[in-house]
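Weekly modeling sync, notes
Attendees: AB, CL, MP (scribe)

Item 1: holo prediction request
CL wants a bound-state model with fe (ii) ion before deciding which constructs to order. AB pointed out that an apo prediction alone won't tell us much about the pocket. Agreed to run with the ligand included and paste results into these notes for async review.

Input as submitted:
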Amino acid sequence: MKLSRVCGSREKNGVSLYEREAAAETVPVRKNALTAIIAEEKSHQFVPEDIIKFVAKPGFRAGNAEFSHTEKILPLIGPKNSSEGKGCVMDNFIFKNPTEILFGKGMIAEIKNRIPGDRRVLFLYGGGSVKRNGVYEQVKSALRGRKVVEFSGIEPNPLFETCLKAVSAVKKNRINFILAAGGGSVLDAGKFIAAAALFRGNDPWAILKEQGANVTGAIPVGAVLTLPATGSESNGNSVISKAATSEKLHFYSPFIYPVFSVLDPETTFSLPSKFVRNGIVDAFIHVMEQYLTYPARAPLQDRFAEAILQTLVDVGPLTLRKPGDYEARAAFMWAATLALNSLIGCGVPQDWSTHMIGHEITAFYGLDHAETLAIILPGVWEQKFASKKKKLEQYAGRVWGAAGAHEAVRKTEEFFHSLHMPTRFSDYGISAEEAARKVRDRFRERGYVCGEHGDIGPEAAAKILRSRA
Ligand SMILES: [Fe+2]
């Protein structure tokens, strides 16, 4: 999942405008600080939505002013981009994805040519499924001759507490390469461990708190993906949970892109169908977070996104029904990677509210990540119907051959149901009202705001959740 742009910063000559502004400390009062940032942004024709999102980041400092609640800041921002798309242009972007993809049957053997023989490798995996799907043996064989330390037991929704134990093992054994084999959770854990092992601060949780801005390096990570879903195999994102405080936070760093990722569809044949269902829905909604916003005059990104959605619609039910169908599983696996490797998000507005709200639901209730998304996405669309209408209509026509924005919402829920994915809180016996209250309070505490217009704050998130009873 990519969240970097939501709260991220723009770069100019390699230096973040915001960081530069913050470091300069030349603007003594809140309003002046913001005015200066906005003026600079406007001079570079950056859209104001990004400023809204950035200043929403808790603890953000500009000059001597500290911002933690976006609601106080929004009136200073001025009019937003038109949701009709008038005046919107494809945004400036930098695209770099350094991960080498090794795709197809038998490609795990290629690892031996990718990890230098003198590396001390931490072989990271989860609950032992790698020993049932043949991955463990193939990896051990490929790593023959190298010093290998195994660390298992990474949970779904990987825990900070477990990762710290792995960091100790890395330091104790002077590990200089991490090989993570598993689904997105194991990969996310590997990336966090890689950054935490070189972190200079006292408490590595600060990496999550700062969303990766304080990461200055990481041990190289390689990946063997066994569960298509998160896109973690080809991006710089990681999501980690803290059991002690029921928090689930993400971070982004350019240092944690895997140097290579092996994607062998055959290693996924033995996955439980629920995992496959979750993967299809997660990948589908990763596309939506980058696509279903407002027209941004980025026709190629739209077509890329629609091609991934169409592919998931075509092969999703088939790969659930026939797990051993290599062709269908390969198409799903590659679609899930392309859904979140930054390509379709280049220069376009992004939403990510479904993920931001969903993370809180997982943290409070333990629902699977994709289960939360399937509940929330239709709610976001219904609550933000007017501002998303044009893209909903485009999506309905191009992906479903249907007319009308309402039809797009209906077809999407039907698609989730066809994968046996529930879309209501009542399906899990959870009170939508209670969930709304909890998430509203959590958003308030953190000063969260999300959505492509920066208009989904605590109250809007609560309204979305209440509508999904
Ligand atoms: Fe996701």
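Recorded for review: The mean pLDDT is 85.
Action items: CL to compare against the apo run; MP to circulate these notes.
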